[in-house]
Structures are given as structure tokens and as C-alpha cells.
Specification:
Strands 1-3-2 form a 3-stranded antiparallel β-sheet. It starts with 12 loop residues before the first helix and ends in a 9-residue tail after the last helix. The protein is built from 6 helices and 3 strands; from the N terminus they run αααβααββα. Helices cover 50% and strands 11% of the residues.
């Protein structure tokens, strides 16, 4: 933000620290990640990929969806940087990205729906 004084000084601390407000790009990153939360199937696929690395065919079977539908969700998750993929021969495997954002989203999903990692010890 600029150091231009505001038209009205209400004496709020934030008014004096405008140069420290994150940029619109920072907030857009958050908005892009939150867009992924708008579809329950996509969240479920992401959650599964936090616990395993899988191909589209297996994911389709796990979530009872068509392969094209799962592929659509995977493209969106990958574009948001929440999952990564690797190719092995003709097969492509997907898993959650090893990033702070992906880990935070994973923990947030589990906390919000009060579920636990399937491999976590009781």
C-alpha cells in the first residue's frame, strides 16, 4: 500500500501501518485455495490424497465417480498447488503437495468434520 494519508484519520493503529498490509496477490492466493472448498467431492479427493498416492482409476473407484469427473477435480487441485503428480510408465499418480497450504487445508478439513487420519494411531 502507499504511504498516502487517508482522507479521515480515526486514530486506528491500522491506519498508520498501511505499508504492512499484504498485497492483493496474497489475498488472491488465499481466495484461489478457498475456491477448492466449494465442492465436497473435490475436498474428499484432496483428503484421500493427503493419505495416499493414487491414479485416477483407483480414485474414481474410491469415490464412486467417473474418471473424467475425478480428472476435472484433480486438474483444479493441481492448478491451486494443493496436489502434485508423477508419471510412471503410462500411469499418473497424484498425492497432496508437500506445502504448508496443503497441510493446513488437510488439518482444517479434519478439524471441521471431526475425522481423523485413517492411519493415525488412536
Amino acid at each position: 500500500m502507499s504511504n498516502t494519508p487517508l482522507p479521515h484519520d480515526h486514530g486506528q493503529p491500522m491506519e498508520r501501518g498501511l505499508e504492512r498490509i499484504p498485497s492483493v496477490d496474497n489475498f488472491q492466493t488465499v481466495a484461489d485455495i478457498f475456491k477448492q472448498l466449494g465442492d465436497g467431492s473435490r475436498i474428499r479427493i484432496f483428503w484421500l490424497l493427503c493419505h495416499c498416492e493414487e491414479c485416477v482409476i483407483n480414485l474414481s473407484s474410491m469415490v464412486s465417480m467417473s474418471s473424467p469427473a475425478v480428472s476435472h477435480h484433480l486438474r483444479q487441485l493441481k492448478a491451486a498447488g494443493l496436489i502434485v503428480s508423477r508419471r510412471e510408465g503410462k500411469e499418473v499418480y497424484y498425492k497432496a503437495a508437500d506445502s504448508a497450504q496443503a497441510q493446513l487445508l488437510h488439518h482444517m478439513i479434519e478439524a471441521l468434520v471431526e475425522i481423523a487420519c485413517p492411519l493415525a494411531s488412536p
